[in-house]
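Support request, please re-run this one:
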Amino acid sequence: MANKIKFIDLKKQYSSIGIYIDAAIQKVLDSGNFIGGEEVEKFEKEVAKFCDVKYAIGVNSGTDALFLSLKALGIGSGDEVITSPFTFIATAEVIANLGAKPVFADIESDTFNISPSKIEEYLKTKNYKLKAKVIIPVHLFGQIADMEEVMRIAKKYRLKVIEDAAQAIGAEYKKKKAATIGDLGCFSFFPSKNLGAYGDGGMVITNNKRLAEKIRLLRNHGSSQKNKYKNLILGTNSRLDVFQASVLRVKLKYLKKWNQKRQEIANLYNKELKEIGDIITPFVVSGRNHIFHQYVITTKYRDKLKEYLAKQKIQTMIYYSIPLHLQPVFKHLGYKKGDFSNSERLAKEVLSLPIYPEIKKEEIDFIIKKIKNFYDKK
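Re-run finished. Output below.
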């Protein structure tokens, strides 16, 4: 195949819906309203309906969605927040930026999601000195964590739950949508996400009216809706951009179809790769609807396979090569190599293959063929 196979090709997506995107952006330009207003409010209502929740609050990014959720719960200095060491740094970064302590619990080796048993193992060691206040399960790569167990543990130890669903909008757990099970749920609309903006964007969803109202205040300098120069609490500037809301409103109509297409592509990969070499294809737990933000295989030959595919003009990515507990920025937490064996092993073995709705079947076939060729030479 002469052309390079990109890991993701957003130009292809734009070419399929560009006429509607252009019209939506032009509508904003014609309105002269560039902060807040109708487009943002309509998008919030549409996401709330899509997820079957009462409240949706648009914010500047997925990172801010997590940050404001923690802030709304009053998290600060001396508090502990339990999360996964195998995720993008933003999840733990926001905890630390509030003066709280990120506490890591290892992941399940098959789903890449936080292990509830490891959460409880930590909580049992703290007993009466408990400082933990929140659990942030990360629904990694598009599959929801074991929320039934997470919620059981949270109830037992009186903890709040914030779902990091940055990669999982539209995924389901026992017929419940991602981000709707905990106290608060967070989405990212980074351009490469299943529902991606043309810049940064994020959202918090909840069924809790008090928390929804507090996040609305926090995202806009703590200003009263009746008098924007009357500041009720200390907030920040984290409004969802009107242009992004207009783009996302168009894309939301296609999300279900796009997620289904990703599942079809994943099935093609699964069928052809499941018995190739030492490759382990994604494991989907019964009762969970995986929307494959990433299609992730594991192999002990990860680095060599990645290098080989690059020579064949096939782009791949590694998410994530350094677990958070081994990041230099978190050295002060006192974790060391060997503390979270699943996260550390998988960081050396995971490889994400191209998966997006517009990728052609012949491109998928070519990728599979080249992977098979690589193992034939082993």
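The mean pLDDT is 96. The first strand starts at residue 55 and ends at 59.
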